Amino acid sequence: MATPAAAPRHSCAKLSVAVEDPKAPGGGGIFVKATWLPTRFSLAVTDGAGAWVADASDAEVRLRAEQWDQPVSEYLALAERYLAFHQPSSTYSFHEAGNGNRRLSWTFEKQGTKLEWRWKLQQSPHTQQTIAEVLDFLMDANIRLSEEVVRKTQSFDKLKQEAEKCLQQSERFNNEKADFEQASFTKVQFLVSIYSMCYTYGIRVILSL
Fold this sequence. Notes:
7-stranded mixed barrel
């Protein structure tokens, strides 16, 4: 039986990047939407005004991994680490690469040496559609996050209510226990006083608690 293909993972991160003109629309910040597969990945990048895409094939990823003496899985894991989440220790840049294309690069350290990876992105043939897809993904992710927060808040509230009920039951038990002990103590005192009185007058009694 054939092994089922691994489901793709999706990510979208806002990266602070160095650009030629920080005053340009989206200057200093880009959104990178990525789709990760076991042997390849694809990128869609927007600064809010333009959009660029890259589709790293199996062969391209394998070649890059070989150039860095890495297995494909390790290469992809490292790329995902830096493109799915903004890493404060990394320096990101997003520069012109001619003909409307862009080059996305990021730095990382390996064995004390600072290295840089780059990927060239082509201008999207459907700029508005690409931008819309990135924004839709962000909105969906925000909705899912909001729903998760609501679920966790509801679970916390329910847990808090159960804890309050347990506390109230514990307090009631302690009060009932104290009342029982006080009643028992009073009964013992009464019986002891009766016994003492009977003893004084020479009357034999059997105490029953």
